[in-house]
Write a structure and sequence with these properties.
The complex is a heterodimer of chains A (257) and B (14). Chain A has 257 residues and is mostly beta strands. Chain A is built from four helices and 20 strands. Helix content of chain B is 0%, strand content 29%. The chains are: A mainly beta (257), B mainly beta (14).
Chain lengths: 257, 14
């Protein structure tokens, strides 16, 4: 059988919120390592990849590798039934037709049990090649969310330009142009609230704000976000989640005419 | 506006 008990159940709610608007259905792959998911949005423009390591659960039991084919909207609805301080357990058999979510209140006075039908999802797995990035930008996740929100008022896409002076986000539309420049706060300092840039080569790429805004749904999961950019390659947007794993998003650049 | 590229061509199908 498979059983994974997450004491900080709110994390599962937050992971769900971070993917449900992007991905319609996906396989949650459960192995001894943990729970992972990789899925593209329906237009194949962006990809989400997440890992919840087994040591983040207490206990974690996976007798046989299984894939739980899940409709995200249905799971998100069930996750909304869990309170923020609930302990969440995910449970299924070795050849499952259903998955069970159990929500326990902290004092165990209330136990909710939701069983959900699984789907047979034929998903293709993509291998993500190791990339030498031109620039790796770390910044407060809330700052990146704010930038995406503000520039969405100006245009549909954002140009990210990174050089020795810092990083600039700019958008243009019918009403005009918006530019937001961030300087490094300190050299190689990745403390919360800091902007840090590892620069190999100056780089400038344009991305759809619609998708970056979807990615910022992961903001409640982490204090820091890392943007890894490289000329003519997809950007990797990573939120590392303390003690359990990560969620990463990839988005292909817009092709300059 | 520039065209949006699909991801498939960057990543390898396993």
């Amino acid at each position: 059988m498979f059983e994974a008990r997450l004491v900080q159940g709110s994390l599962m709610k937050k992971f769900m919120e971070a993917i449900k608007d992007l991905v319609k259905e996906a396989n949650w792959d459960c192995t001894g390592t943990g729970i992972s998911l990789q899925a593209m949005d329906t237009s194949h423009v962006s990809l989400v990849s997440l890992l919840l390591r087994s040591d983040g659960f207490d206990p974690y039991r996976c007798d046989r590798n299984i894939s739980l084919g899940i409709n995200m909207e249905s799971m998100a609805k069930i996750m909304k039934c869990a309170s923020n301080d609930d302990v969440i357990t995910i449970r299924s058999e070795d050849h499952p037709d259903n998955v069970t979510f159990v929500f326990e209140s902290p004092n165990q006075e209330k136990v909710c049990d939701y069983e959900m039908k699984l789907m047979d999802i034929d998903s293709e797995h993509l291998g993500i090649p190791d990339t030498e990035y031109d620039a790796i930008i770390s910044m407060p996740a809330s700052e990146f969310q704010r930038i995406c929100r503000d520039l969405s008022n100006i245009g549909d896409s954002v140009k990210i330009t990174c050089n020795k002076d810092g990083v600039q986000f700019s958008a243009q539309g019918d009403t005009g142009i918006g530019k937001i420049a961030l300087k490094q706060n300190a050299v190689i300092d990745k403390e919360d609230g800091q902007v840090s840039i590892e620069l190999n080569d100056p780089v400038s790429l344009t991305f759809a704000l619609r998708y970056l805004t979807f990615f910022t749904k992961a903001t409640p999961l982490a204090s820091t976000v890392t943007l890894s950019v490289s000329a003519k390659n997809p950007v990797a947007v990573e939120y590392r989640v303390d003690d359990i794993g990560y969620i990463r998003y990839y988005l292909a650049p817009k092709i300059e005419e | 506006l520039p065209e949006q590229d699909r991801l498939d061509q960057y990543f390898i199908k396993c």
